[in-house]
Amino acid sequence: METINHTETKQWIEKTIDVLEAPEEFDFNTEQLKEMKRQANKLERTEGLTKTEKEGIKQIKELFLTVEPSKEVDDKNPRRKTTAIVLAIFFGLWSWLYTYEKNKKKFWINLVLFVVTFGYWGIVAWVWAIIDFAVKPEEYFTKGYSTKINNFLIVIVVAGVFALAILILLIVFLVVPGLQRNERQHQNTNNNSLQLNQ
Fold first, then answer.
1. How many beta carbons lie within 10 A of that of residue 99, not counting itself?
2. What per-residue confidence (pLDDT) applies to 120?
3. Are 88 and 131 within 8 A, CB to CB?
4. Worst-scoring range by mean pLDDT, 7-16, 21-30, 46-55?
5. With a threshold of 0.70, does the pTM exceed it?
6. What's the confidence (pLDDT) of residue 109?
7. For the segment 63-86, what is each residue's pLDDT rounded down to a tens digit?
8. Chain centre distance of CA 25
C-alpha cells in the first residue's frame, strides 16, 4: 500500500467533488470520469487516510452513481449544417445517412419510394433533403451523434454512390444501345415488309 500526501489528496477530493456536484459547469467526458474512478479506488486503498479524506472519497463514489458525462457523444463527432446541405445538394436522399441517428425513418422511407418509383422519387427526396437540412438550427447537428455509426455510414454512402454510378453506366452503355439496336431492327423489318409488298 502507498503512503499519502494529505495536501494533494485534499485538493483532489475537493476538486473532484466540485466537478461531480455540478457537471454541467465543467467540460469532461467518459474517459475523464473513468480516470476519476480509478484515482478514487487507488486512494481508498492507501494507508493513513484521515476521517475527512475517507468521507470525501465515500462522497465521490456516491456522486459517480448520479453523474453522466454530458459530452460523451456530442464532442466526439458533431455534424455540421453546411456539410449536411452540401451532401444534400450532391447526393439527395443519401445525405440523410450523415444524420442517420436522427433521420432513420426519412432515409428508409425515401429509399423504398426511390426503388418503387424506379428512381423518379429521387427528385422529390433531393429537394426534401436540401430543405430539411436548410431549416434545421445549428444545434440539431451538434448533439446525439456517435463516431462508430458515422464511419459505418460513410462506407454505405460511398458504396451506394458507387453502385448508382455503375447502374447509370450500365444503362447508358448497355440498355440504351440495345434499345436503339432493336429500333433499327424494327425499322429494317418494316422496310423489308414494305419492299416485299411492293
1. 24
2. 86
3. no
4. 21-30
5. no
6. 93
7. 777 765 544 444 456 788 888 898
8. 26
Rounded distance, CA 192 to CA 155, Å? 54
Question: Beta strands of the chain (E only): which ranges?
Answer: none
> Percent helix, strand, coil in the chain (nearest 5)?
75, 0, 25
Please check whether residue 164 is in contact with residue 170, taking contact to mean a CB–CB distance below 8 angstroms: no
Q: What type of residue sits at position 33?
A: L
As a residue count, the chain comes to: 198
What secondary structure letter does DSSP report for 79?
A: -
> How many angstroms separate the CA atoms of 171 and 73, rounded?
42
CB 49 within 8 A of CB 2: no
pLDDT in tens, 5-24: 778 888 888 888 777 777 66
- What does the alpha-carbon distance between residue 54 and residue 35 come to, in Å, rounded to a whole number? 19
d(CA 121, CA 3) in angstroms, rounded, equals 71
Would you call 60 exposed, middle or buried from its count of C-beta atoms within 10 A (0-12, 13-18, 19+)? buried
The helix or strand, by DSSP H or E, that contains position 48, with its residue range, turns out to be: none
Look up residue 89 and give its amino acid: I
78-136 pLDDT tens trace: 788 888 898 899 888 888 888 887 888 998 999 889 888 878 888 999 999 999 999 98
